[in-house]
Amino acid sequence: xxxxxxxxxxxxxxxxxxxxxxxxxxxxxxxxxxxxxxxxxxxxxxxxxxxxxxxxxxxxxxxxxxxxxxxxxxxxxxxxxxxxxxxxxxxxxxxxxxxxxxxxxxxxxxxxxxxxxxxxxxxxxxxxxxxxxxxxxxxxxxxxxxxxxxxxxxxxxxxxxxxxxxxxxxxxxxxxxxxxxxxxxxxxxxxxxxxxxxxxxxxxxxxxxxxxxxxxxxxxxxxxxxxxxxxxxxxxxxxxxxxxxxxxxxxxxxxxxxxxxxxxxxxxxxxxxxxxxxxxxxxxxxxxxxxxxxxxxxxxxxxxxxxxxxxxxxxxxxxxxxxxxxxxxxxxxxxxxxxxxxxxxxxxxxxxxxxxxxxxxxxxxxxxxxxxxxxxxxxxxxxxxxxxxxxxxxxxxxxxxxxxxxxxxxxxxxxxxxxxxxxxxxxxxxxxxxxxxxxxxxxxxxxxxxx
Length: 451
Description:
Blueprint: H1 16-21, E1 41-42, E2 47-48, E3 80-82, E4 90-92, H2 96-102, H3 130-134, H4 143-160, E5 166-167, H5 176-179, H6 186-204, E6 212-217, H7 223-231, E7 239-244, E8 262-266, E9 285-294, H8 296-310, E10 317-323, H9 336-341, H10 346-355, H11 367-374, H12 380-388, H13 394-417, E11 421-427, E12 438-444, H14 446-449
Parallel strand pairs: 5-11, 6-7, 6-9, 7-8, 9-10
Antiparallel strand pairs: 1-2, 3-4, 10-12, 11-12
Helix pairs in contact: 4-13
């Protein structure tokens, strides 16, 4: 048997103690010194940690083995020390003070003022339980209920949305050089085109000015903030504040050289009090932005902004590129009054949030439904035949899906209009860039701004 024909040897399972200490099964090949990657074996992923390590080190900062204090030496005399809040992990002594501010083991009473548990959660009245939500299957709905919801969607769409979404054609020139680079693939260019359009809107709205704080909700890796900060380099006392609940790697805002232009806040939007953010105390203007804020996070952000306004922390402009409407939920949704007024029940709301997947999922089937059919060893032809026998054609489902998305967004507009904003929906890029091509734009009314 040739070397290439030798069977691949599967790694054996590690014990709990091995997983905790990072020890590796003996028959797993070790990484070479040249690779300079962490030697911690990640049991859950059955591979080594891919993080690079410092010169002369074997483990990354996250997986460095616990350090025992040497006799006669204080913690300050050692390179890496156990975290005072949780000795299960270690930290470089030079970074100790910075780490203590963000450590997950930090006592709750030490949380900053801008964190208050569930302050933006909304009211869970009449909300379905998780089991009730999971029990709703579009393919299993009775015809009466199925078509009743669709009729309501069509009626609301024709009354409030149809023909009222205008297209914007803005593009900021600061992105031209980046877009001219040939090394970017289709996916990267898609995000750059969206960023260019959103920055064009901010420029058109005359928000790029002195003494302005841009708060980016759900900032992710900070691409939008990175390019926005470039526009603020010649502005006085202006900055971008990124808010995200995750601590992500390879954040683009880390590449911003002038650190006075950017600040990252780790917070779940559901717990975030905008009016308590110290960064806003020195600013005259506040602008809320987001590029693709998923489902319920949009509602949490809008409620956060409106509740801050009651505390005299006013946001001049709201610009949110909406997406992932299937993740909306009745408890946090800000447009409940609109649906109640039109006799849409919480159950029908849940059905609508499931129908939105028809807009962009391609086959018109949920992943679970398609997987179940594939497990029956059906061919593509047989699956398509089953699809063709559904109550609506693929084109009809796609149309209804988009209608569902837009009436959810319209309900949000009503919420903002009731709270002193002029709010509208716009197509900010073409559909061939992204199917999630709608931005919610809300301007604070002039009579409020002058007070």
